[in-house]
Amino acid sequence: MQLIDGKQTAADIKQEIALAVSLMVQEGKKRPHLAAVLVGHDGGSETYVANKVKDCETVGFQSTLIRFEDNVTEEELLAKVDELNQDENVDGFIVQLPLPRHISENKVIEAIDPKKDVDGFHPINLGRMMLGMPAFVSATPAGIIELISRYNIETAGKHCVVIGRSNIVGRPVSILLSQKAKPGNCTVTVCHSRTPNIADITRQADILIAAIGSPGFVKADMVKDGAVVIDVGTTRLPSDKTKTGYKLHGDVLFDEVAPKCSYITPVPGGVGPMTIVSLLKNTLLAGRKEIY
Amino acid sequence: MQLIDGKQTAADIKQEIALAVSLMVQEGKKRPHLAAVLVGHDGGSETYVANKVKDCETVGFQSTLIRFEDNVTEEELLAKVDELNQDENVDGFIVQLPLPRHISENKVIEAIDPKKDVDGFHPINLGRMMLGMPAFVSATPAGIIELISRYNIETAGKHCVVIGRSNIVGRPVSILLSQKAKPGNCTVTVCHSRTPNIADITRQADILIAAIGSPGFVKADMVKDGAVVIDVGTTRLPSDKTKTGYKLHGDVLFDEVAPKCSYITPVPGGVGPMTIVSLLKNTLLAGRKEIY
To answer: Across the strands, what pairs with A191?
Structure first.
């Protein structure tokens, strides 16, 4: 069993991005600039955005944090999106989700210029990804593909089973892995809450991707010997054993599943660290105008 | 075994559309207007487009056929697309594919205003479909969903296996059937040319959709008893038994597979007739501004 070290891989990629940025600066080009829009004071969102901004500094990006209170109107937010679309100094930006209920997330996402949509949530980026065209791919699926690629895990002709059909993880990763690409060319099955015989399906998986947010859902008897297991779950549960008072739990019962695997990602330290790095990579691509 | 009669269903839907159009006209609204752009003289394309125009007349649409010779430049074609985008009298239009090699199909498709993209090929319509947002869904997958719906075939919790990962059939239908919708909520597996053990997978299918364009690929031993089989294949092979000199062949060996099925679509007369009807339905939706 080999552990897939997302933390180390993410650190390697950050170094690569930092190097690329320093070369850009040497060539007289401007640093890539990521802007993040944060509405309200949700604890999770604040932490994510703070980490994104910190990581921008680490790799040498310019970064801007734009904050609104919970009572911002949809019009005000859309006006800011339009301003960022126009701002030539901003290469890419994100609007941290979720948004307050009185604001349409779809409307805000569709207002973002696809060329600056480094979260890859705009329908046009999803559609281009689906067509195999250059596109910003959202962070988690991009991170999973990167891990599979860097660990030289063979995917062609393998059966990949994805548990979860979310728009930001399950669906896009299922598409990416079944495309004529490398990594890719998997036979892919998407399971979800309405799949009755889920263990019969997961036991067929050469590559099993769990992305449902249900702690410990995948047990040893659901996994084939020698499978590659990618755990996307990150559910915070209270814990009296950590300083923070909580502990992250994956969708996989690691201790009993890991011995059966050829490769497995831990939680934390697997897919999680790759997510922010994928956003940085998209920002670098935006700065270099490599997608559009 | 029940035959799924696509020809009859398509005729029913055409009548429904014709009725909707006559109501629009009674209310003083203009008739939906479909324009079709045809480049060159490919026999297949000429027939398809001629049928589309004829069917427009049948249901009371206005239709316009715009022809270019093979040597049209990309700029000229893009200028026509722009003109159709601007033309308020045109509700929807299609550019018949394939295009000559010197023209980028992606560029032309992305130039079409998504609001008039009744073929549903624009990345933004694919992305919106993926997100479960209102979108023009391309004709063949929309036709398949319509048949499943009109025959009241249960999909929730069923295992659907799609053979083929094309952007216009396999991929979109696999997404639609796995979504939280009705029809939908299937566990979906996408197989393709790189799937090694394809019969092991297809034998698990409660619903089997064959969309690879390989005549007679699906044999009786690849199908579970009681399965629903949807045959999307339409390969023309020479024949001395028909007036036209050719015969359409599906991807399924109908004679040996049909007795095992609960439902099956024939070729011809199954999915094929639904395809043009789906385009008409999209044009009606465009005329009524129901998607955007």
So the answer is: A163
CATH of A139-271 among 3.50.50.60, 3.40.190.10, 3.40.50.720, 1.10.3660.10: 3.40.50.720
pLDDT digits (tens, 9 = 90+) for B129-142: 999 999 999 999 99
CB pairs under 8 A between A and B: 103
A134 to chain B, any CB pair closer than 8 A? The answer is no
Instruction: Give all strands (DSSP E) within chain B, no chain letters.
Output: 2-3, 33-39, 62-68, 92-95, 159-163, 187-191, 207-210, 228-231, 235-238, 246-249, 263-264
Interface test with B, best of A126, A154, A171, A224 (most B CBs within 10 A): A126
pTM more than 0.90 = yes
Q: Are the beta carbons of B286 and B92 closer than 8 angstroms?
A: yes
Spatial CA neighbour of B123 closest among A127, A129, A259, A180: A127
* Nearest Cα residue to A143 out of A288, A282, A286, A3: A282
The domain B139-272 is classified under which CATH number: 3.20.10.10, 3.40.50.620, 2.40.340.10, 3.40.50.720? 3.40.50.720
CB atoms within 10 A of CB B83: 12
Residues in a beta bridge with B239: none
Q: Catalytic: A96?
A: yes
Amino acid at A232: V
* Residue-wise pLDDT tens digits, A144-180: 999 999 999 999 999 999 999 999 999 999 999 999 9
